[in-house]
Amino acid sequence: MSIIGAFLLVILAIVRIVWIVRQGVSLLAVLLFAQAGLAALLMIFRRSASITAPVWVETGAWLSACLPLFFFVPSSVSIWQDLLPVPGLALNLWALASLGTAFGISPAQRGLVTEGPYHWLRHPMYVGELLSLMGGLGAAFRLWNLVLLLVFSASLIWRINREEQILSSSGYPAYARHVRWRLVPGIW
Question: pTM (2 decimals)?
């Protein structure tokens, strides 16, 4: 699935470039392109996994990862509305860069990452995704976007549980004792 996944992420990066060409350069558009492009590169050059998830979990993880693509984005928004998803995307990019070649969409054991935002949260990339979608919801409130955000949030909880099961065979339990919070400091 990694070749297919890398191909899909390259296609997404191309779509983001076309969006920039058609809509003009904006910080949001550049960050979305950077996210897709970096994810594609990391998928191509990632290290092999010592433990992988079953096919049904891998499929579920990919479906979860695709959910934000169905978020309704209006064709024109104010500059302030365009900036609402930026903090979440910035956190997402920082987490993605910190993961480096350990990045993957489906749960797998590719080594433990404890640097960057992983020093404070166990799943900062998911936090970034949630924050960016919440910003998008603030910029374009639609019932569809709210439902999608709730479904995506539930899918992330499912993914986190699957990932932590696979990672529990390494030094992850000690890391989890040191970094207590999965998504929300003080809560979970």
Answer: 0.90
Cα separation, 2 vs 106, in Å, equals: 9
Contact call for residues 44 and 6 (beta carbons, < 8 A): yes
User: In the chain, what are the domain boundaries?
Assistant: 53-178
Tell me phi and psi for residue 131, to 5 degrees.
-65, -40
Show Cβ contacts of residue 20 under 8 Å, excluding neighbours closer than 6 positions.
26, 29, 30, 33
- Strands (DSSP E) contained in the chain are 51-52, 108-109
pLDDT tens, N- to C-terminus, the chain (188 residues): 578 888 888 898 898 899 888 888 888 888 989 999 999 999 988 888 888 899 999 999 999 999 998 988 776 666 767 788 899 999 999 999 999 999 999 999 998 999 999 999 999 999 999 999 999 898 889 999 999 999 999 999 999 999 999 998 778 999 999 999 999 888 88
Tokens 């932590």 correspond to what residue?
164
Tokens linked to 140: 């374009």
Counting beta carbons within 10 angstroms of the beta carbon of residue 116, is it exposed (0 to 12), middle (13 to 18) or buried (19 or more)? middle
- In angstroms, the first-to-last Cα distance of the chain is 31
Q: Are 130 and 87 in contact (CB under 8 A)?
A: no
46: helix, coil or strand? coil
CATH fold, domain 53-178, is Four Helix Bundle (Hemerythrin (Met), subunit A) (1.20.120)
